Amino acid sequence: SESGYDRVIGEMVKPFGKTYTQDIKIKILGTPEPDTARIAITEMQLPYTVDEFLTIYRAKVKEELQNPTLMPGAEKLVRHLHKHDIPIAVATSSSQDSMELKTKNHQSLFKLFHHIVCGSTDPEVKHGKPAPDIFLVCASRFPDKPSPDQCVVLEDAPNGAKGAIAAGMQAVLVPDPGVPEECRRPATLVLKSLTEFQPELFGLPAFD
């Protein structure tokens, strides 16, 4: 869904003669909505308050994200882990409303997750990615409350990978090709595609 968010912000800043550059995208990628607004306004000197930005942003996102496609390899991995009784959850910076919109056509798949934490609207998540809060909250909601070193996080955003590492977890990053090398370094492992992921490298059951 990140390309959809990029298009929305690009459209919002164009009337002001601003360009949504790759450097700014990397700062925003994976952050909760209020942080997205603050970073965009500051970096591009936009004539919005945070509330004004979010009102326009959320309306455009609702139009843009009607039916996002799954990342290649995601469905296979989720069903594989569920089949082998590996507890899985979602830790997203999206709001509850945005998450419901994005997943409405993938309900059967998302029902396989034990729980979903939405960082933009969950009161227990005090600080957004790259802070570790969302990952620690997410882990705490599993019945057995695994320690951070028992958790593997799959991320497409460098901010998310940083947050996972800060939480004491392992982070597998599948970044956009435009993400520079220095932004990939915090991750435990960097892949070009989720189809390359080998669960057994992290002590998980190998694909059949």
What this model shows, in words?
By secondary structure, the protein is mostly helical. It has two domains: 2-64, Putative phosphatase, domain 2 (DNA polymerase, domain 1, Orthogonal Bundle); 74-202, HAD superfamily/HAD-like (Rossmann fold, 3-Layer(aba) Sandwich). 43% of the residues lie in helices and 9% in strands. The strands form two sheets. Strands 3-4-5 form a three-stranded parallel beta sheet, with helices on one face. α9 (158-166) links the parallel β3 and β4 (170-173). α3 (33-44) crosses α4 (50-64). The longest helix has 15 residues, at 50-64. The model has no long low-confidence stretch (mean pLDDT 94).
Q: Helix and strand layout, with pairings?
A:
Blueprint: H1 2-13, H2 22-28, H3 33-44, H4 50-64, H5 74-83, E1 89-92, H6 96-103, H7 107-110, E2 115-118, H8 133-140, E3 152-155, H9 158-166, E4 170-173, H10 181-184, E5 189-190
Parallel strand pairs: 1-2, 3-4, 4-5
InterPro entries: HAD-like_sf (IPR036412), HAD-SF_hydro_IA (IPR006439), HAD_sf (IPR023214), PGP-like_dom2 (IPR023198)
Family: Belongs to the HAD-like hydrolase superfamily. CbbY/CbbZ/Gph/YieH family.
Organism: Asbolus verrucosus (Desert ironclad beetle)
Please give a quick description of this structure.
Its EC number is 3.1.3.96. The protein is mostly helical.
Label this structure with key terms.
metal ion binding, hydrolase, HAD_sf, magnesium, 5 strands, mainly alpha, three-stranded parallel beta sheet, single chain, 208 residues, DNA polymerase, domain 1, Rossmann fold
